[in-house]
Design goal:
homotetramer; 378 residues; 15-stranded mixed sheet; 9 helices
Chain lengths: 378, 378, 378, 378
């Protein structure tokens, strides 16, 4: 039967059935899709997408531990840490207070979904010194010490990577953002390895400066307490991500990469981090076509953004000028630029065009200087 | 200073600052917006948007009770019931097993957000008789009885509205969907008032038929265990809603309306329910312009859909024919239709055009017959 | 047959058919939906959504005139002007050069769709004096004069509303944005009535200042040459709209309203215009609940944004403070704010809370000061 | 200066400026982004995304020819044909009737944007024989013949690829869909090479059957007359695409591929075409992980969809069963499936799992049978 007869005879009944089939079908499709976050790998390293700061009902969060795994899977992450507070368990009347429990409950889901689950905890003190995440610990209950330095030491003795959380947090640094002597002491003892440049959606410029000055690893984390979508996706606010460049996708490689400072942070469509790493990632993300000459006067190139973050380019037009000189290239799209001043260049010659990536911050007021390499089509 | 100078001098610095301002701003905007679900009211009643079947960590759910309130606020609902299982508490090693606890923990949030929180519980037995929600109870712990009928009776004695949940559920009715003698007994005793026509995304046609035959109130509920967005919004599956037509937005009015069977169900862009109620809601949702005659030959009307659900219309063209004869009008949009056969009608005359609303089911295989009233522009 | 049997027996065949039905259905649904732009009316006036500057293939545009009508219908507009250039007709080798032709070709579609089509033309000169739209003319061909002032006069004699287009346009004002003596002369003769504060997506702050100083009507227009979606919607750039507050939806009322300066402009989620008109529109858009007191300590209000543009509020907290003090309320959503300092206020008392609407500009560097009126719930 | 001080001092002024910067920025960004349509290449061929049936103002379309090029660039296409009607030029009073003119006007834009522009025309007759596109012609004016067969012959003599357009079109085949003797004659003479299986959004099952029986190349085309977004994107209807598997991206390779029948059609998230080609494309699109065994009982795999079209899989569970057995994998996402029955398989062994791809039609009522190859992780 052709569509013609089919259509004439059965339409209304079929439309009704199709509404039901569609509904019925959805009820089977409870399988949650993982939205791949396609940050490219860089030479020698895989790019792991991570969130090192999350909470559950086992401290002051509002979800069961396994939810953090499902969310991570759905959001395209590779690794997370559940970092429930040691010193703050407001649900203690209703929920078990064992500091290792959230990890244990989340682990089976993590293994089933292939998410690296880092055992961790948040040592939670007033400022100074503030809050600190200890990652890669073995037993969180050993961190329950009255004395702050003893708690940190208990983490360090387990080989922990220790990061200072949200140094800019208003509630703890209402008027200024200070580095206290307690932080100097931690650093001197080898007890401070990382710092949050992004917490939730808040950027801490002081943290980015201190990271450079004091050789700390930067991270950017959700610090999520509610279900992730109540805060992050429903209002078009993107979940921050720490990109970790690891030799392979294993907990050991991840840990090495953190200690070796191979991280970048992405939040609100802005990159933060070391200029060499940023340039390498941009180089893997941004694909330039050869210069195509059309007629005798015009030439153009195309630039494709293969990463999941827009790239905001600003060209300083010198000998070679590109137009538009200021443009944003959304993820998965290609831009077309006119090129001037290429006239006397020999075919095949490599042209180096300087460009600022305005949404990549190497320091609080400094955008990444990148060099775009073009070749003239033979 | 004009934009011209402003732009020339400051662009790069300002763009950097604006990226940060934007990020910074978001970090203040933790205030969750309520997405209004603008179903129109109908004459004499306000339209309450409700979900009578949800779970928390206090039974087999994965969120803290207050999350259900925030989700309801965000999703534009007016009333919800947390219906944790009486007989199934898989987190009992880690979480308090008091059957009233989830209600108590959610209540302050409900009051702060203006959500009507119905105290309820799910009596959870194998089939027959299956699972039943008791709504508007006073003390959930009294429902913890070994004998099913005693549990139901304990609910009924508290004035509960009792609904049979998911009668089509595969796990309980794998081969056929049966009404058992236990259900007849419940009905006879006055212990059965409602039935789920939609559970999650699954439509149960038998439930819709039984509701008509046995005078039961229909509901459609999320039965959500995970955070709502892990199942419903992230995959473009809409949360089902029970529309309750109540005299006012109070718990007492809501209860009256449920016992008086003034409900409709919306799921997957399909309406289910009584044809008179459906026609009344469509009448409040669909606004027709007068017939506008253009030139000597052409006439048209516009139809605006003021509800948040698409309306799928199919005209049976008789004397008056409309074109297109089959169309979907998305929410918040207006369609334009050509009209033929109006020629000899006097100005001001009311024209009654029959139309099927294909996505409104009054019975499993029956779409709503509606009469569109048009007037000829003078 | 219940879904169960239905599902077991027919699934694959039905899924195939439903894919085809869905496709088939779409092929009937060529009826274009009008996306309603629900700006509220204000007391005494209907709010007409307008675009007074568009082009077609009859000057340097790229679409047939009827396309501008379909686009206007689809985009929720009430009135447009096709303002093809008098002096610039680059398609003259292939297309008729009659200056009235685009209007004539678009008119039948406008009548069929209920769009008010304003006959107009763009008088197109180098700066000074630049480009000018003449709206509400009777015969565009009379504007084809060598002498600029004669062309303007020919428009004025037809009762035209004359606006200066894009005074900030780089190509005509590369270094500064000047008001020339030609403009003074036009104004003196009564030949200048309006000015574009927004052209495409470009805001011209000088134009907004001059409008206030010289009693000009402000407009904001697309100046679209390509199909509207190639520029405006595909890149998340919203089409600018001139809101005209007219006594009724007729060309005569629209013309009166323009001469009487009852316009506001919306572009890029920012409002521009007179503070009294802006305050009236905000008052119709923003619905505050009464102050709801919860327990003995807490009070809150909700604010619902019924307009299609986000409202960005910033409270200056004095006696009464609201939290968050800085928030954006997206269209169709409700925000919830905590209220402090209300304690000693008697029930029913009206509270006046000052607030800045940050995305409403009354002058280039000035945001609208608005007073939010709250009542304490009895 | 840290964000703290920055924020306290400057917020309101900065927010105002950022609103303007954002608007200003957009006004520079008139550069249209190309949304890449990432269909994977297949071994030996590049996958070209094509539309072989479009119109302009030079026949009964509503856009200037260059618009079709910009739209194609924006929509991620590689090649298009402007196929204006030879016999139907309703704008002839206003527009040049030269049959080659639309090609000539579009060509410079095509070259600048790297779009392959195929010279073509639509020979437009009543049924039988209906409408035919001639692609790759040299001079369209030679096709203006009274006699149909002479027109086709004039195309064939230019080496044209000739396709029968929309054989199912209601206006031409109101009651049945017939293959007429005229079509047999064309085929016999070697004058018929292709057939539209999709025109606009309409699927023609007869065309798909005839293509198989008579060795015709299938295509699916927009047949767009309006601006593309007025019909296709604004109502969530996707533009149909003909996928052509060519040796390289040149007009010659494209032509070879069409004559050699290396095409598939995608419309409304459904694939149509030859089962071997479809299987090859699915194989390039769907990436399966190795089987991962977790604990002693559970195993799972992940499937990633790297194409821009959802894949709807239905497993027939035999020895090896996968759950869910029926699922849709949206573009750019990964699904996770449980695996049963793998227990006795040796590590490294290749497992072949049969699966139906429900949204890939090899014949009107036949979905693609595909074999998913899995390996057991060592």
């Amino acid at each position: 039967m052709g569509m013609k007869q089919f259509h004439t005879t059965f339409t209304k009944a079929i439309v009704l059935i199709c509404y039901i089939v569609q509904a019925q079908f959805h009820s089977q499709a409870q399988n949650i899709a993982r939205q791949e976050l396609n940050f490219p790998d860089i030479p020698g390293f895989v790019t792991l997408k991570c969130d090192f700061h999350t909470h559950t009902v086992f401290s002051d969060g509002a979800v069961w531990p396994s939810v953090r795994i499902t969310e991570a899977w759905r959001d395209g992450l590779d690794a997370i840490c559940i970092s429930d507070h040691i010193e703050y368990q407001p649900h203690h009347k209703d929920v078990n207070t064992d500091h290792n429990r959230s990890y244990e409950l989340a682990l089976p889901a993590a293994q089933r979904m292939g998410i690296l689950l880092i055992r961790g905890a948040e040592i939670t003190r007033s400022m100074p010194p503030g809050h600190f995440n200890a990652l890669f610990i073995k037993d969180a209950s050993l961190l329950a010490k009255d004395d702050f330095m003893e708690a940190i030491q208990a983490a360090a003795e387990q080989g922990a990577f220790i990061q200072w959380n949200h140094p800019c947090w208003d509630a703890q640094q209402p008027d200024t953002v200070r580095w206290f002597e307690e932080h100097t002491r931690l650093l001197a003892k080898g007890y401070l390895h990382g710092i949050e440049v992004i917490n939730e959606t808040q950027y801490c410029p002081e943290a980015q400066r201190w990271a450079v000055e004091k050789n700390l690893t930067i991270t950017g984390n959700s610090d999520i307490h509610d279900p992730i979508d109540l805060f992050y996706h429903s209002q078009h606010i993107k979940r921050p991500v720490t990109l970790v460049f690891a030799r392979e996708k294993t907990e050991a490689s991840l840990k090495d990469a953190l200690f070796e400072r191979r991280t970048l942070v992405v939040s609100g469509d802005v990159y933060y981090g070391d200029s060499a790493l940023l340039a390498t990632l941009v180089s893997s993300s941004l694909k330039a076509s050869p210069v195509m000459v059309y007629g005798q006067k015009e030439a153009f190139i195309t630039l494709t953004n293969r990463s999941p973050v827009p790239l905001h380019l600003q060209f300083s037009n010198n000998e070679i000028s590109l137009s538009p000189s200021d443009l944003v290239i959304p993820p998965g799209t290609t831009a077309r630029l006119q090129l001037n001043g290429y006239a006397n260049l020999p075919a095949g010659k490599l042209i180096a065009v300087p460009v600022h990536i305005l949404n990549a911050f190497t320091l609080p007021e400094t955008s990444l200087k990148y060099v775009l390499k073009l070749t003239l089509n033979p």
